[in-house]
Design brief:
By secondary structure, this protein is mainly α. Helix content is 55%, strand content 0%. It has six helices and no strands. The longest helix is centred in the last third of the chain and has 16 residues. It is globular. It starts with a helix and ends with a helix.
Length: 139
């Protein structure tokens, strides 16, 4: 292949991409695009730090943390494929968390606030929710 031909392919991104795709296919590779991450998605470490600030009691934080670890692995975007439950605390439907903020899909603090309200209203506290979870495998 001549230098001018290579230069033309590089100058034309579409042709360069097509060439790369054909070369990959010829060797058995599959090219796929990875899904984009939302800019405001909090990491597990960030979510845990937020929860520690929001839950001053060590016992309550530990209980909340155990539930979240089991439910979502501290993944703000966690989605249950069978039920559709969403977020750190696996709200069902996830849109329930909109009562805590319009950024419920991506904001760990909003999800934690909603989860704490849910646990306090239904079980009296995160410890109460954890006790129920241990007995039933859900909360």
């Amino acid at each position: 292949m001549s230098v001018s031909r290579i230069a033309r392919r590089i100058a034309s991104p579409k042709k360069a991409l097509t060439t790369a795709a054909v070369a990959a296919a010829a060797t058995g590779l599959v090219l796929t695009a990875a899904p984009a991450q939302a800019a405001s998605t909090s990491s597990a470490t960030q979510a845990q730090a937020i929860a520690k600030k929001m839950i001053p009691s060590t016992a309550q934080y530990n209980a909340f943390s155990k539930i979240v670890e089991h439910e979502s692995g501290w993944d703000v975007d966690a989605t249950n494929a069978s039920s559709g439950a969403y977020g750190l605390v696996q709200a069902l439907p996830g849109s329930k968390m909109a009562s805590a903020g319009s950024d419920w899909k991506t904001n760990a603090e909003t999800q934690i606030e909603w989860g704490l309200d849910y646990m306090n209203d239904r079980y009296g506290s995160p410890v109460g929710a954890w006790n129920f979870w241990q007995a039933n495998g859900w909360y």
